[in-house]
Amino acid sequence: MNRTTYHYLAIAVLALLGVAAPYLFPAYLSQFSKLWLFIVLALTWDLTGGQMGYNSFGNVVFFGVGMYAAAAVQVALYYPLAAYTAAKGGGTEFIFNTSQFLTGLAAGLPAAGVLAALTAVALGLIILGMRGHYFAIATLGLAIAAGELASGWDLIGAGSGMVTPTPPDSLDTTTLFYYLSFALAALTFVFLAWLYSTRYGLAINAIRDDEDKAEAMGHHTIRNKVIAWTIAAFFLGMAGGIFGNLSKFIDPIDVAFNGAEIGVWMILMAILGGKGTLWGPVIGASVFYVMKELFWTYLLGWQRVALGLLIILIVVFFPQGIVGWLKERWPSRFGPTAAEMEAADAKGEA
Amino acid sequence: MDNLNLLIAAPILNVQLLLDGLMIGAIFALAAFGMALVWGVMNIINVAQGEFVILGGYMTLLLVKYGLPPLLGIPFAAITLFVLGWLLYRLIIWRIVDADMFISLLATFGVSIMMQQLMNEIFGSDVRTAESGLGMSYLFNNMVTVSQIKVLAFILAFVIGLALWLFLKRSRLGQAIRATSQNPRAARILGIDTGRVYAATYAINAALCGAAGALVVMAWSIHPYAGLPYTVRSFMIVIMAGLGNLGGVIAAGLGLGAAEQFAGFLLGAEYQLAFVFLLLVAVLVWRQINLARKRQYLK
Question: What CATH number is given for B2-293 in this structure?
Answer without folding.
Answer: 1.10.3470
